[in-house]
């Protein structure tokens, strides 16, 4: 028997086997070359994977927002938002594998009709004091740094009130919900069986602050079951409250891996505002640099104040105010405040709650010696 001929026949047989597998929509879960041996993750996720990336607000997002506002009216489309698509996930509408960030500029007095959907979403004010969201009968006008919730299945509408345009960013868990085959949208809003283009306000404009804006205290004489009861009933978190917490703790040591990080919580549970995403504000004091941190959660980071850079898997990514930075889960990441005189403030979204629900959330850090240590859950 000729040895080379036998080897050639095996190659031909393997090729035929792999061709048949592909034709039948199957995948071989065995290593066939030294570079993937015992690397199941690489075999299964080799096709599409989110990559670290920065979208520049000043250079890219802002100019396109203004061009879109000139060319696309509310009559053309009620959804004039710019979705950030991760280069590693294109053409999926995803900024990381489970979430996306979108930016929107609304012209003066531009209000869209109510709608609702299965993804959870938030709006975070960037520019202007007239950003507007009406959600489940609570009319909310919000400015820079204010965060507004539009949880799963809640009727809501967006826009601007007043004579100035306004810009906000939104974060949705739509890619995760899409993966779970659970996406739906509804647009036929009714009150008393009659179609309406605007929700009737049923609560005072300061309802969320009046009921939930006093840490550690909450009225028992009102119902806290709002919307589908699947999220925080506090629909707006004001920036002045967050700023006060940051200022009171700016001289504390903070965490070596996260600096000063404050989480938005559901006041009725003490947990995250959504079951799928949680949100933080992170402050880096002048010149502060966090220790390298790796976690299974993916992050969307929007610098709200200041500028700096992040080192992700050894690569430097510079960012400025209102940019968005994608940090895929599993990446080593550390943040650096580039200023020696001013703090940097970051708005952060994380899919940590979704991972915790499946016992998949883990964190690791590197210590001063460069050794990897497993970090306990918060």
Automatic annotation (TrEMBL):
Oxidoreductase is among the record's keywords: yes
SUPFAM superfamilies cross-referenced by the UniProt entry: RmlC-like cupins (SSF51182)
Record's keyword terms, sorted: Dioxygenase, Oxidoreductase
GO molecular function, a single term: dioxygenase activity
Coiled coil: none
Cupin type-2 domain residues: 108-171
Name the UniProt record assigns to this protein: Cupin domain-containing protein
């Amino acid at each position: 028997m000729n040895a080379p001929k036998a080897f050639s026949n095996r190659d031909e047989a393997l090729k035929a086997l792999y061709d048949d597998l592909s034709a039948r929509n199957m995948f071989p879960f065995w290593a066939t070359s030294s570079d993937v041996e015992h690397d199941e993750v690489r075999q299964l996720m080799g096709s599409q994977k989110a990559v670290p990336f920065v979208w520049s607000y000043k250079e890219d997002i802002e100019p396109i927002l203004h061009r879109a506002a000139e060319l696309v009216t509310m009559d053309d489309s009620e959804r004039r938002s710019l979705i950030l698509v991760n280069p590693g996930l294109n053409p999926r509408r995803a900024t990381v594998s489970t979430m996306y960030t979108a930016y929107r500029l609304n012209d003066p007095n531009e209000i869209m009709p109510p709608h609702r959907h299965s993804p959870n979403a938030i709006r975070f004010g960037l520019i202007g004091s007239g950003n507007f969201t009406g959600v489940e009968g609570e009319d909310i006008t919000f400015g820079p740094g204010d965060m507004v919730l539009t949880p799963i299945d809640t009727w809501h509408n967006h826009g601007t009130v007043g004579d100035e345009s306004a810009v906000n960013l939104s974060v949705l868990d739509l890619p995760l919900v899409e993966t779970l085959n659970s996406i739906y949208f509804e647009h036929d809003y009714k009150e008393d069986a009659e179609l309406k283009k605007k929700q009737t306000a049923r609560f005072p404009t300061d309802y969320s602050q009046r009921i939930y804006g006093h840490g550690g205290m909450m009225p028992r004489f009102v119902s806290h079951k709002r919307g589908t009861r699947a999220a925080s009933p506090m629909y707006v978190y004001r920036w002045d409250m967050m700023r006060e917490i940051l200022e009171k703790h700016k001289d504390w040591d903070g965490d070596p891996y996260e600096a000063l990080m404050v989480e938005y919580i559901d006041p009725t549970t003490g947990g995250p505002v959504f079951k799928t995403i949680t949100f933080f504000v992170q402050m880096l004091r002048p010149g502060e640099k966090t220790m390298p941190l790796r976690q299974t959660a993916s992050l969307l980071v929007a610098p709200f104040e200041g500028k700096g850079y992040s080192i992700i898997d050894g690569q430097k990514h510079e960012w400025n105010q209102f940019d968005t930075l994608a940090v895929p889960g599993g990446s080593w990441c550390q943040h650096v405040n580039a200023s020696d005189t001013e703090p940097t403030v970051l708005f952060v979204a994380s899919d940590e709650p979704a991972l915790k629900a499946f016992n998949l959330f883990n964190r690791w850090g590197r210590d001063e010696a460069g050794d990897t240590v497993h970090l306990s859950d918060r």
